[in-house]
Amino acid sequence: MLATNTPLRLIGLELAAGILLVLGTQSVLAQPKIPKEYSINGFAIGCQAYTFNRFTVFEAIEKTAQAGGRIIEFYPGQKLSKERPAVIWNHDASDEVIAKVKAKLAQYNVKAVNYGVVPIPKDEAGARKIFEFAKKLGLRAVTTESTESIDTIEKLVKEYNIAVGYHNHPRRPNDPNYKVWDPNYIAQLVKGRDKRIGACADTGHWARSGVNPLEGLAILKGRIISSHLKDLNEFGKTDAHDVPYGTGVCDIKGCLTALKAQRFTGNIAIEYEYNWENNVPEVAKCIEFVKNYHK
Length: 295
Prior knowledge:
- By secondary structure, this protein is of the alpha/beta class.
- It is about 40% helix and about 15% strand.
- It has helices spanning about 10-30, 55-65, 95-105, 125-135, 150-160, 185-190, 205-210, 215-220, 250-260, 280-290, and strands spanning about 40, 45-50, 70-75, 80, 90, 110-115, 140-145, 165, 195-200, 225-230, 230, 240-245, 265-270.
- An 8-stranded parallel barrel has the order 2-3-6-7-8-9-10-13, surrounded by 7 helices. Strands 4-5 form a two-stranded antiparallel ribbon.
- Strand 4 and strand 5 (about 90) form a beta hairpin.
- The relative contact order is 0.13.
């Protein structure tokens, strides 16, 4: 408490210092951002490498660039290259392999921003290995479904300033313990946690689960770390498949508008799980849709 005889000038200085302290704290807690040069029409958009899981990591980077994407989200288990098919890309990669992947990214001007979906163990040593890998690659976030590890995750999020998004696969009617499909569950899970812990919003899997993507985004307002933005040919069907943005049932324009309104700073990873052998043209249509988007 300030003394009643404290000069006004000192009061002003103390108040200013307090404001700076608060702003500094908010800055530390804010979700990391992706450089603007990797954005298209205000969105950092590219591919989840799983889109090209019939191909190698090197080919996934090349195909992402070919489709017009600026960022890529890796997943564990993909073969590194045609020349080294026995080398599997994951968080156990050697520094030599990481350097080769970074060189390939630089060659195609694609930025790696995310990694997942990957299990994050409760064990801090095991979890730390994933965060160290993310740090070496310069990633913004990691995607997981490991709800049981949230205490360990929160500790490492604070230490590394790397965000974590909880991903949703479709609802499993025969497995009541699988709850991450429900955006309400994720919202409660991350409530009161560090702001860098939130959701990887998979709109396609929401639609397969009978969840309106716009409602899911609203429920998770302010907590969306990244998105596997998808448009599907049918709603509420587990066998529904991806279609180019704007041609399906997921109201992609509405989703983009909702993300804009939330001041979303994460990445949109197109995870196009259809026409596996030749889906670059359809991915390119999705990116073109975002490029031409306006409210």
